[in-house]
């Protein structure tokens, strides 16, 4: 037998893929040979470490994760909470290096990654070895332990072969789901599965600068994330709804990255743009409105006068964080 994912390329999925492609192109064009890309990558790495471990219940805040990566110990938290974050960062660094190597992914690669992520933070089982026990995840009962090695062999065969025929946006989500469905390790599968999805994007050249992490999207609505995973079984293995959910998450993630790219670019300009709360609020509003906002809609949303809106918009227009489209009379404002 072989692993053959089942899904339909729906109209919604196609729309999300089109928007993702456009955002990816804009981000790529804006990050060619610029000095602040390492800062953006560091920010993304820290956000990913915080989000992926927080999904599993880690109590560290994003500022604490930033401090921990910078070498500052956090005596108020348990050693395990800190170890989970440091393990994630070590696993991510390994994946970044491994993704550059044009060779098939093996069982040993998965064992190495799991050891990096799970050593000293497992409640059961052994880091870097497939489970030898039955496990249960909520209502989900993963396959028996004696089936794990064979199922993972099939998944790796698909990942190293047929998956390359599809967009990495889709294959990363399929890989993520199937890994969680098999649940090959006794513990630490959530972090490992999300890391594999990121690895697929890296190895296929989707995020060459490593400047985003979709895990923030999953963390902000964990209930929907877990429901999305569970819904595949309820749909008899059909992955369509899961792919629609994950592509929506990736699109929203890239929209945030585009906003951060613009902010970093503005800060690096000769005259730095210091955003006021009203300007940050407007940028967030525009991020969620692809068609933009008319002037009157901006006045209403920010509860300001026409003149007040002009003062808010002027620095954003100058820094090219916002642009106007359409005629002077009927124009709308969109992200730059």
Written description of the protein model:
This protein is an all-alpha fold and 336 residues long. The chain has helices spanning 11-30, 37-55, 62-69, 79-98, 107-118, 145-160, 168-182, 189-203, 215-220, 222-234, 240-268, 277-287, 295-302, 306-318; strands spanning 322-325, 332-335. A two-stranded antiparallel sheet has the order 1-2. The protein is globular. The mean pLDDT is 90.
Shape: globular
N- to C-terminal distance? 50 Å
List low-confidence stretches: none
What is the number of helical segments per DSSP (H or I, 4+ residues)? 14
Radius of gyration: 22 Å
Q: Give the strand line-up of the largest sheet.
A: 1-2
Structural class: mainly alpha
> In what range is the share of β-strand residues?
under 5%
Q: How helical, in percent, are the residues?
A: 55-70%
Summarize the helix and strand pattern as letters. Answer: HHHHHHHHHHHHHHEE
CATH superfamily of the largest domain: Fido-like domain
Largest sheet: 2 strands, antiparallel
Please tag this protein with its features:
2 domains; 61% helix; 336 residues; Fic-like fold; globular; two-stranded antiparallel ribbon; Arc Repressor Mutant, subunit A
In a few lines, what is going on in this structure?
The protein is mostly helical. Helices cover 61% and strands 2% of the residues. The protein is built from 14 helices and two strands; from the N terminus they run ααααααααααααααββ.
SSE blueprint and pairings:
Elements: H1 11-30, H2 37-55, H3 62-69, H4 79-98, H5 107-118, H6 145-160, H7 168-182, H8 189-203, H9 215-220, H10 222-234, H11 240-268, H12 277-287, H13 295-302, H14 306-318, E1 322-325, E2 332-335
Antiparallel strand pairs: 1-2
Helix pairs in contact: 1-11, 2-3, 2-4, 4-5, 4-8, 6-7, 7-8, 7-11, 10-11
């Amino acid at each position: 037998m072989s692993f053959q994912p089942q899904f339909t390329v729906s109209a919604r999925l196609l729309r999300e893929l089109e928007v993702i492609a456009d955002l990816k192109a804009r981000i790529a064009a804006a990050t060619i040979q610029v000095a602040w890309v390492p800062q953006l990558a560091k920010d993304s790495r820290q956000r990913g470490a915080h989000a992926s471990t927080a999904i599993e219940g880690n109590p560290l805040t994003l500022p604490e994760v930033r401090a921990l990566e910078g070498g500052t110990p956090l005596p108020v938290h348990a050693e395990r909470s800190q170890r989970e974050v440091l393990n994630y960062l070590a696993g991510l660094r390994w994946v970044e290096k491994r993704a550059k190597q044009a060779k098939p992914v093996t069982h040993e690669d998965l064992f190495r990654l799991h050891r990096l992520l799970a050593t000293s933070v497992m409640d059961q089982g052994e880091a870097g070895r497939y489970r030898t026990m039955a496990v249960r995840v909520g209502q989900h009962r993963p396959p028996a332990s004696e089936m794990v090695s064979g199922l993972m062999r099939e998944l790796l065969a698909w990942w190293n072969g047929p998956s390359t025929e599809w967009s990495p946006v889709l294959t990363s989500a399929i890989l993520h789901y199937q890994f969680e469905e098999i649940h090959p390790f006794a513990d630490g599968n959530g972090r490992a599965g999300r890391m594999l999805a990121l690895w697929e994007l890296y190895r296929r050249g989707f995020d060459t600068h490593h400047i985003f992490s979709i895990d923030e999207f999953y963390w902000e609505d964990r209930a929907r994330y877990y429901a999305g995973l569970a819904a595949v079984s309820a749909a008899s293995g059909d992955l369509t709804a899961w792919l629609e959910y994950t592509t929506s998450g990736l699109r929203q993630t890239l929209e945030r990255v585009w906003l951060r790219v613009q902010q970093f670019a503005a800060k690096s300009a000769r005259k730095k743009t210091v955003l006021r709360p009203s300007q940050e609020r407007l940028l967030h509003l525009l991020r969620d409105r692809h068609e933009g906002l008319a002037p009157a809609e901006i006045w209403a949303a920010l509860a300001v006068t026409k003149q007040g809106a002009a003062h808010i918009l002027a620095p954003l227009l100058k820094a090219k964080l916002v642009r106007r489209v359409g005629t002077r009379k009927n124009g709308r404002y969109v992200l730059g």
